[in-house]
Amino acid sequence: MKNLKQYIIIILFVTGIISFQSCIKGDFEQPPVVMPTVDFKANMTIAELNQYYRDSLHSASPVLITKDIIIKGVVISSDKAGNIYKSLYIEDGTGGINIKLDQKEIYNIYKLGQRIYIKCKGLYMGNYKGVPQIGYSNSGSLSYIPSTLFSTYIFKDSFPGNPPAPRVMNISDFTLNDISTLIKLDSVHFAPADTMQPFVVPGTAYGTDRTIIDKNGNSIVIYTSVYADFATALVPKGTGSIVAILSYYNGTNSYQLYLRDINDVQGFHE
Questions:
Q1: How many domains would you assign to the chain?
Q2: Contact 134, 124 (CB under 8 A)
């Protein structure tokens, strides 16, 4: 009788452990991952939107987009390294666009290679130093789209894939249509005065320009923010390749480049 009671107690104890483990497993099971999809199509390319802005909307102040314009593109930027701030860059094969978002660590929300659609109606279009941008209006200036409105205007489609390969270009070939796209420059070197110096001059308030030169003597600056995690890295000697987002600064009427991270500086050797 005593052995029977012990046996029953053991059975109940084991059953309780199994039930407890099942409850824990049930409480912490991950919800199924649902692939995001959209049920609408883009009706304008990014290049067409940029041209529409230049031809029809251009003004000194941000312009409200009143037409039912939908664009799509793939994310080519990442703010993980801190060199890009509250901006999302997408391109669609025809051009690129900078979207101003009131959000830090955007890379956690819109990852490299993520295809997104943007319903532009209700947003504003403007430019910063010659670079077309989509954003929101704040007292007559182009501001960031509030995070509470992301789901109203920005829609993911499918899971992130491979980001577009950068287009191999020459500095002399850049046009305004290439702004905000991912490009690659081969066989370039940094200006001798910049090499073995940190990408950002210590103590500067915002950032630093470093000059790269191609084999034909053409040059362009790479701008690095003081907040970049590679700000103290040394500018390499030798020749290599640069992958970057092409930008523009009409204060000097010149193109400039933004690195996404230090891995965009590739293969430099003397």
A1: 2
A2: yes
Name every residue whose Cβ is closer than 8 Å to that of residue 50 and which is 6 or more positions away in sequence.
95, 97, 132, 177
Q: Strands, E, within the chain: which ranges?
A: 63-64, 70-75, 87-91, 96-100, 115-119, 124-128, 131-138, 141-143, 154-157, 167-168, 182-190, 207-214, 219-225, 239-249, 254-258, 265-269
Q: Which domain holds residue 238?
A: 167-269
Q: Two tokens at 115?
A: 């295809």
Domain CATH number, residue 221: 2.40.50.140
Residue 1 in any domain: the answer is: no
Please write the tens of the pLDDT for every residue from 197-216. 999 999 999 999 999 999 99
216 assigned to some structural domain: yes
Question: How much is the average pLDDT of 225-230?
Answer: 98
- What's the CATH number where 153 sits? 2.30.30.140
Tell whether 131 is covered by a domain. yes
DSSP 146-192: PGGGHHHHEEEESS--PPPPPEE--GGG--GGGTTSEEEEEEEEE-T
Determine the pLDDT at residue 219: 97
User: Distance (Å, rounded) from C-alpha 217 to C-alpha 212?
Assistant: 9
